[in-house]
Amino acid sequence: MKPEDLYKRLKKIQEPKGYYFNKDSELVFELLKGLLTNKERWGYMACPCRLSSGDYESDKDIICPCVYREPDAKEYGSCYCNLYVSRDWNEDKIPHVVVPERRPPELNK
Fold this sequence. Notes:
The structure is a single chain. By secondary structure, this protein is mostly helical. About 40% of the residues lie in helices and about 5% in strands. A two-stranded antiparallel ribbon has the order 1-2.
């Protein structure tokens, strides 16, 4: 699959849920490439912004969209990677701050 195809597929699924791709398309396509690389490497689309272990059970929480996306987007208007953002974030109606890592350190193996 090409990043462009993944973009179209995910956009269709995620926008109705209120999650939009970052307006910085260069960043978005780099992250999508990372997701596809991880899919090739591990068999699942682990978050490209975090270290994957290669063990599905250990990485379940960071398979995109990760379990941290919803609380991050709710609190900051963006997920940790800045791949998924709210409409207000994209329209600069809320501040763009660095989203802190929510994943507990003990899960990074």
